Amino acid sequence: MPKPEKEDHEKKLKILAASDFHGLEVVSRDLAKKAVKEKVDLVVIAGDLLDFGDYAKNMIKPFVEKNIAVLFVPGNHDTPEAVENFTQEYKIKNISGSYAIVGYVGFFGSGGSAHLPHFPFFVSEKDMYDNLKKGYEKVRSAKKKIMVTHEHPAKGSAEKFSGFPGSTSVRAAIEKFQPEIHVNGHIHEMEGFEEKIGRTRTITVGKRGTIIEV
């Protein structure tokens, strides 16, 4: 008698996580090709699709043309107006202060930066934590959880080695909610860097994209 197939919740979810496109259409095109080649289930973008708010349609279009699902949070360069355009025109999900559940994985996040008040997408530390808490409450029963932010956590190695201050709210949320994985962008030179905070694997991603399986 043949063995029964594994149930969906036992299959790993394959994700391509990326960040900081800064309006470069070639980045989107290359990542969409990588997503197809790697047969990913989902693309997650950790902010800064644009460069100081200039709306560029082709940041998302390559993924949509290849029928690739996309979740994202805004970065400090992304204007609220551009974010609204992305969600309305391409029907992709902004999980900043919100959530998404894909299979057995719950995604929640917060976009923006708490350190750059003169940038288009400034978010206070309080609001950032509230965003994360709000999303977490919606996915807390999910078997696995992934938290997505633009900023990196305070008091971590990414902060230490880059010299850029991290978010105290992101750090507090990781320590409180302990998602299996945390994804952030923002610090370009730290792309690919990983560390553990408690049981959370925190990963800094960038233009090249990082494959994550959970």
Describe this entry's structure for a reader.
The radius of gyration is 16 Å and the shape is globular. The chain has 214 residues and is of the alpha/beta class. α4 packs parallel to α6 (168-177). The longest helix is centred in the middle third of the chain and has 15 residues, at 125-139. The strands form two sheets. It has a six-stranded mixed beta sheet. The chain is 28% helix and 22% strand. Residues 1-9 have low confidence and may be disordered. The two termini are 30 Å apart.
Write the layout of secondary structure elements.
Blueprint: E1 14-18, H1 25-37, E2 42-45, H2 61-65, E3 70-72, H3 80-90, E4 93-94, E5 99-102, E6 105-110, H4 125-139, E7 144-149, H5 157-162, H6 168-177, E8 181-184, E9 194-197, E10 200-204, E11 210-213
Counted by DSSP, the helix tally is 6
Order of helices and strands: EHEHEHEEEHEHHEEEE
Shape descriptor reads: globular
CA distance, first residue to last residue: 30 Å
Largest sheet: 6 strands, mixed
Give the oligomer, counting copies of the same chain as homo and different chains as hetero.
single chain
Number of strands: 11
Helix content: 25-40%
Low-confidence stretches: 1-9
Approximately how much beta-strand content do the residues carry? Answer: 15-25%
Rg over alpha carbons: 16 Å
- Side-by-side strand order of the widest sheet: 5-6-7-8-10-9
Determine the structural class based on helices, strands and strand pairing.
Answer: alpha/beta
Mean pLDDT: 91
